[in-house]
Amino acid sequence: MSPIRLALVGLGKIARDQHLPAIAATEGIELVAVASRNASLDGVAHFATLTELLASGEAIDAVALCTPPQGRHAFAAQALAAGKHVLLEKPPGATVSELGPLVSAAQASERTLFATWHSRFAPAVEPARAFLAEVAPRAVRVTWKEDVRVWHPGQRWIWEPGGLGVFDPAINALSILTTILPRPVFVTGGDLSFPSNCAAPIAATVAFADADGLKVEADLDFLQTGPQSWDIEVDTDRGTLLLAKGGAELSLDGQVLSAQPEAEYRNIYKRFVELVETGGSDVDLAPLQLVADAFLLGRRLEVAPFHD
Ligand code: NAP
Predict the structure, then answer these.
(1) CATH number, span 4-115
(2) Which listed residue (90, 145, 245, 270) is catalytic?
């Protein structure tokens, strides 16, 4: 099979940091075009917008949408209507309900729609899932604290409606949680701290439960300087399981069970190639649904304004 000819839409931080090297390292896919208003790549066909790219007749099979979540639905709908396979950065959209029509459009046009959750491809996530399938969890603590100024420098969209604020990184924790726990969890309450000049929260505590009464507490912060915390701790009969470093490292009572080099985006593109070759799609909305429910049920608190 000839390689999938891919166009990257939105050449920003994550496209440069992760997508470009992962595409280059993945067999069966090649970058042939970029659609980005303010950025281009040497030696790759450039278009300011997806509309211009699709109108140009440039031969592409697929698009990877690395734009902010607001507006991604329109790009995905446009690409599917043009007969292209679509890879969505996380979160897959700005709302849960906008994804249904995309799934239907992908089915109708027999194209692949892949809603990626990069943290699910972290190396210790599968070992954690396997461990928790054997040993019942008793309580779960999620600590997801990072420095927005490091990871999202100057990104205004993250503070706008649909930008998710601290839930932009925290949805990665939820993508892991919804993979490793044996039963689905649902939101039972929370406090969301909104800077007075922002439409999205900068910190939050959220409580979850499952049907058997398992309690999950999440402590989320976007102003963490120094060491960053991307940890999920699970109390079990066999000890405390710690999935640390965003899913890269697994330990039980301090003893390391799994620590391997990360290859999240390479595994994303490997999976995309498989999905396209087999005619499949992969769209799981559980993490986005939990964020939406936190916004529905969480108490809204106003805190000091945020300035980059
Ligand atoms: P970013 O640096 O702002 O890049 C997004 C790019 O999309 C921009 O450079 C811009 O390029 C284009 N764009 C199109 N419409 C836009 C609009 N209305 N507002 C702003 N930019 C627009 O953002 P990012 O950090 O790469 O994040 C993009 C997506 O990747 C988000 O969904 C995010 O959650 C996800 N992600 C980010 C990280 C991270 O560490 N930053 C990690 C994993 C996933 P042009 O101006 O050239 O059109």
Answers:
(1) 3.40.50.720
(2) 90
